């Protein structure tokens, strides 16, 4: 990769992780990277395109690892759907493993993902555009692992799971130290085990009574309309 382009990407990744995407200007990236505005526009054209490029360079190897893991777990299941825990592990493990590898962005990229999750719809839009096929594959695996869960309920549980993953990527919150009376620490393997256990329990939790009542009412209306 061009050295100037790589320096811009590394600088933007660090500043976006520290300050957030919205609060970081192209001017500050240019100053930190020691390049001029023309170089940024030549390689990336815009701030959003720069963000898309730095996510793409990390997501391609991570998505490859996700699919390798999912393929392995499907083979091990011998024709049955892989267990829910394995589907979740295949999806979140590659991201958490980045924290141990500076070449993959280390904790910097993890914190960036955590920040972006809290900054609106920009990250989901980029990930859908870059990783749509991978997301569809895991959506199918989740539905196979949870055959009795209604689509709307699955949607909400995926939404909540993304929030838990984002908080984990950010490294937690200082407020949690006060609540738990423990200092925050991060180990990717321990985080993976805790996250898989937590998310699996959440996906398998009983459906709320209100949701069941709504589903029954919708079914009754559908029958009456026939």
Summarize the SSE layout with pairings:
Layout: H1 3-19, H2 26-33, H3 37-43, H4 47-76, H5 84-97, H6 106-117, H7 122-145, H8 151-169, H9 174-180, H10 188-204, H11 209-225
Helix pairs in contact: 1-2, 1-4, 1-6, 4-5, 4-7, 5-7, 5-10, 6-8, 8-10
Tag the structure with descriptive keywords:
single chain, 226 residues, mainly alpha, elongated
Tell me what the structure shows.
With 226 residues, the chain is mainly alpha-helical. The protein has eleven helices and no strands. It has helices at 3-19, 26-33, 37-43, 47-76, 84-97, 106-117, 122-145, 151-169, 174-180, 188-204, 209-225. Helix 4 (47-76) packs across helix 5 (84-97) and helix 8 (151-169) packs antiparallel against helix 10 (188-204). It is elongated, with a radius of gyration of 20 Å.
Short précis:
The protein is an all-alpha fold and 226 residues long. 76% of the residues lie in helices and 0% in strands. The longest helix has 30 residues, at 47-76.
Distance between the termini: 61 Å
Enumerate the spans where pLDDT stays under 50 for 5 or more consecutive residues: none
- The helix count comes to 11
CA-atom Rg in angstroms: 20 Å
> Structural class, please?
mainly alpha
Taken from the alpha-carbon principal axes, the silhouette is elongated
């Amino acid at each position: 990769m061009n050295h100037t382009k790589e320096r811009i990407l590394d600088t933007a990744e660090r500043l976006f992780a520290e300050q957030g995407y919205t609060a970081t200007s192209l001017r500050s990236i240019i100053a930190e990277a020691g390049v001029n505005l023309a170089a940024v526009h030549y390689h990336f054209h815009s701030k959003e395109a720069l963000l898309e490029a730095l996510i793409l360079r990390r997501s391609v190897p991570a998505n490859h690892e996700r699919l390798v893991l999912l393929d392995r777990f499907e083979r091990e299941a011998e024709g049955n759907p892989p267990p829910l825990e394995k589907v979740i592990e295949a999806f979140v493990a590659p991201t958490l493993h980045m924290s141990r590898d500076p070449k993959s962005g280390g904790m910097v990229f993890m914190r960036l993902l955590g920040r972006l999750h809290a900054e609106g719809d920009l990250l989901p839009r980029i990930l859908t555009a870059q990783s749509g096929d991978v997301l569809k594959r895991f959506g199918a695996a989740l539905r196979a692992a949870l055959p009795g869960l209604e689509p709307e309920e699955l949607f909400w549980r995926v939404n909540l799971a993304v929030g838990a993953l984002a908080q984990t990527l950010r490294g937690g919150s200082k407020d949690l130290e006060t609540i738990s009376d423990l200092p925050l620490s991060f180990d990717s393997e321990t985080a993976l085990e805790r996250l898989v256990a937590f998310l699996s329990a959440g996906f398998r939790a009983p459906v709320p009574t209100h949701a069941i009542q709504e589903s029954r009412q919708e079914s009754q209306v559908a029958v009456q309309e026939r």
